[in-house]
Amino acid sequence: MINLKDLYQGFRDPEVIKSLATEIAVLAKQLPDKINIMEVCGGHTHTIMKYGLSQLLPDNIEFIHGPGCPVCIMPKERIDHAAALANRQKTILVTLGDMIRVPGSNGSLSQFRAQGCDIRPIYDPLDTLTIAKENPDKQVIFFAIGFETSTPMTAVLIDQAEQQAIDNLFFHINHVLVPPAIDAVMADEKVKVNAFIGPAHVSVISGAKVYRSAVERYHTPVVISGFEPVDVMQSILMIVKQKVANSAKLENQYSRSVTEQGNLGAQALIDRYLSVRPSFRWRGLGPIPESALMLKPEFSHRDAEILFQQDLPHQEIDDHKACQCGDILRGLCKPKDCKVFGRGCSPETPLGSCMVSSEGACNAYYRYNGVA
């Protein structure tokens, strides 16, 4: 557990943090109701937990940890798809690092790798091009995950595969979108959220504009924030000011990187190869309409879901009954409310995806807030 005397140590701008905390505390006395702020991105969750920001805030401001971790929201059946593809003869499955430890219904990809499947975790999607070129006798399948942040790299990879005519490279697309997830959170009848800290890197690609409908529909402040502790504290102050004034606006604290329109070049490249999927089942949130992407029909010659569909399971698989990751992703409970947190479930032996991922809320609590 972080002690209060340690909270300001290590900050790049400790005096600014102190000033912001004081200003928030004074202004929060005017709040008519409690603010429940959902930070959508797992990167913000880790900033909040690592630096003990919640301990700097008054009791009428609380953080609720959202579904903004691409590994955490991946349902078991999609992981089962990856395992089934990796089990095919003469196949190399390539995916991003954290993905290989997420448990599916028959084990994690790391377990299948230990059993002899050729599964290669990478950090740069373009490494997949090299793997495909070096293995012309094998089918290389890129299991693509991530929010709007990582989608452009997948689009670049598809583009390069097309331009270089790399015929043995295929794609299983699992890219998801933030705005529909916000709608799903707010549609829950038990929802407590009444303000959002918007994701930083996602917004660099999509632009601030994508959150305007949420602000208008739910009369809920959305402040796009950077990842530094000062960024988060300043964003909280912006939210508090809105609540005291009984207003709901979209504000951009991360203006040094985020614009209203976003990265138009990246958006154009994504639109060239990917389209919106009618529905996608999120771990913990269930099916959300138009919340994910898929390859366009004209690129079906690279679509692993179509080409290898006879090898893919189709049954929807729920989480372990003892795991409350779904409720955590919806903001209905905290990691320590889960009975198996830190007991049957730890980063070494995870039962749920929120503990596996480096951006997961359970992982953050375990690392920074103690188990007891």
Secondary-structure-derived class: alpha/beta
Percent helix range:
25-40%
Tell me the distance between the termini. 9 Å
Number of strands: 11
How would you describe the shape? globular
The largest beta-sheet arranges its strands as 2-1-7-8-9
Major sheet details = 5 strands, parallel
Radius of gyration from the alpha-carbon trace, in angstroms: 21 Å
Low-confidence stretches: 1-9
Task: Figure out the total of helices.
Answer: 15
Let me know the average pLDDT: 91
> Secondary-structure element order, as H and E?
HEHEHEHEHEHEHEHHEHEHEEHHHH
* β-sheet strand percentage: 15-25%
Polypeptide structure, described:
The chain contains 15 helices and eleven strands. Helix 1 runs parallel beside helix 10, helix 2 (42-50) runs parallel beside helix 15 and helix 6 (151-163) crosses helix 11 (264-273). The radius of gyration is 21 Å and the shape is globular. It starts with 13 loop residues before the first helix and ends with a helix. The strands form three sheets. It has a five-stranded parallel β-sheet with strand order 2-1-7-8-9. It has a four-stranded parallel β-sheet with strand order 4-3-5-6, sandwiched between helices. Helices cover 36% and strands 19% of the residues. With 372 residues, the protein is α/β, with parallel strands linked by helices.
